[in-house]
Automatic annotation (TrEMBL):
Enzyme Commission numbers on file: 2.7.7.9
Residue span, Nucleotidyl transferase domain: 5-277
Molecular function per GO: UTP:glucose-1-phosphate uridylyltransferase activity
Catalysis: reaction(s): alpha-D-glucose 1-phosphate + UTP + H(+) = UDP-alpha-D-glucose + diphosphate
This protein's UniProt keywords: Nucleotidyltransferase, Transferase
InterPro entries in alphabetical order: GalU_uridylyltTrfase_bac/arc, NTP_transferase_dom, Nucleotide-diphossugar_trans
EC top class named in words: transferase
Organism: Pengzhenrongella sicca
Membrane-spanning parts: none
CDD domains in the record: UGPase_prokaryotic
Full protein name: UTP--glucose-1-phosphate uridylyltransferase
Amino acid sequence: MAIHKAVIPAAGLGTRFLPATKSTPKEMLPVVDKPAIQYVVEEAVAAHLNDVLFITGRSKRTLADHFDAQPELEAALEAKGDLDRLALVRESTELADVHFVRQGKPKGLGHAVLCAKHHVGDQAFAVLLGDDLIDARDPLLPAMLALQERTGGSVIALLEVEPETIHLYGCAAVEPIPGGDDADQVRVTALVEKPDAADAPSNLAIIGRYVLNPAVFAVLEETPPGRGGEIQLTDALATLATMPADEGGGVYGVVFRGRRYDTGDRLDYLKAVVKIAADREDLGPDFREWLAEYVPSLKA
C-alpha cells in the first residue's frame, strides 16, 4: 500500500525564541516570506504525502488558520486585482488534506507520534519535524519511502556530524544492508539518544525525518519515559531494531548528503534565512550583492 500520510509534531513551546513565541508558534516564524512549517508541508506533498496530521498544543491556533481559507483577505486581494498575492494566500490552503490533534501535555516526541495512532491506523506513515528544512532541490523523503516499502521496516534519516556535536542528537550504529547496492542506505543495529562523544557508536545523527511501520505505536505504548523524563521516539526505534521483520521490526537509515537548514535555535535560524534568501531567484541577486558589500565590513 502506497504511503500517503504524514505526521508533523508541532506542540512544542518554542522557548528558545522567546519573546517572539510567547503568542506565535515557532513553526509560524517566517523564513524569508513563508512560515517555516509551510516548507515542511510542501516537502511532504512533493513526496505524494497528501494527508497531513499536525500534533499541536495550546496557543497553536494560528497554525490551523494558516492552512485554512481567508475569505475576507482573498476577496480584498481579488477586488484590487492583486492576483499574484491572491495565489500565494490560496497556496497554503490548497496544499494538502490537513488535520489537527491536540497532544495535551508535552510528554516528548514519542508521545506526540503516539497521538497519531487513530488517524494513521495500520498503515506506514512519515514523520517530519519542523526544525529541519530540507532543500527542495535535494529530496530526501522519496528514498526513505522507497526503502520502507522494500524492507517493510522503519526508516530514519541520518546525517554525518562532527563527533564533538553528536551529544546534541540521537545517534545510530549501522551496518551495510545485506545485498544492498547503495552505501548511503544502511541497517540500524542500535540507537542512543544524545550520547556523550566517548560513548557514541558513530557520527551518524538522526535528523527530523522518519518513515515508520505502524508497529511503532504498540512499542511506544510500552516505552517508559527516558532522557528528560519524556517518551523518546529514539527509544522506541531502538526496540523496533531488535524485533523480527514479521512483527514490524527492523530499522534502516538513509544518509542524507544534501542541503538542510536547521531552524531549531536562533543562530541556525538566521543562517537558514540568509542561505534560502540568497538562493531565491527573485531576491537572491540583489541580496547577494548587498551581502558581498556588507560582510567584508564586519569585524570578527
